[in-house]
Write a structure and sequence with these properties.
The chain is an all-beta fold and 114 residues long. 0% of the residues lie in helices and 53% in strands. It is built from no helices and 11 strands. The protein has strands at residues 3-7, 10-12, 18-25, 33-39, 46-52, 57-59, 67-71, 77-82, 91-98, 102-104, 108-112. Strands 2, 4, 5, 6, 9, 10 and 11 form a 7-stranded mixed β-sheet that branches. A 4-stranded antiparallel β-sheet has the order 1-3-8-7, with no helix packed on it. Strand 9 and strand 10 (102-104) form a beta hairpin.
């Protein structure tokens, strides 16, 4: 069973940066997708970025060229580097693993405000 623990959220001013981390423990399927999603108050959860076990990445249009998803060589941690943050990026950010099954992390709050 895969377990996910997110960290790195916090309060940042508009234009600032944050890096989120998602540490995965347990046995992962050989082919999987790790993704970052976010959910703002009153809105549906949406995909932000994802990376496959082969390193292929995909981004939501709203974060393209501002956010970068990456993984470490051991494939145990996935990162989301967020630059040029905007107030509309404020949300709870969740990490998701999709292999044979689906596992969600507990979420980490990101608040962009002056």
């Amino acid at each position: 069973q895969v377990r996910l623990v997110e960290s790195g959220g916090g309060l940042v001013q508009p234009g600032g940066s944050l890096r989120l981390s998602c540490a995965a423990s347990g046995s992962k399927f050989a082919v999987y997708i790790m993704g970052w999603y976010r959910q703002a108050p009153g809105k549906q959860r949406e995909l932000v970025a994802q990376i496959t076990s082969r390193g292929t990445t995909n981004y939501a249009g709203s974060v393209q060229d501002r956010f970068t998803i990456s993984g470490d060589n051991a494939k145990t941690t996935v990162y989301l580097q967020m630059n040029s943050l905007k107030p509309e990026d404020t949300a709870v950010y969740f990490c998701k693993y999709t292999g044979l099954g689906t596992v969600w992390g507990q979420g980490t709050q990101v608040t962009v405000s002056s």
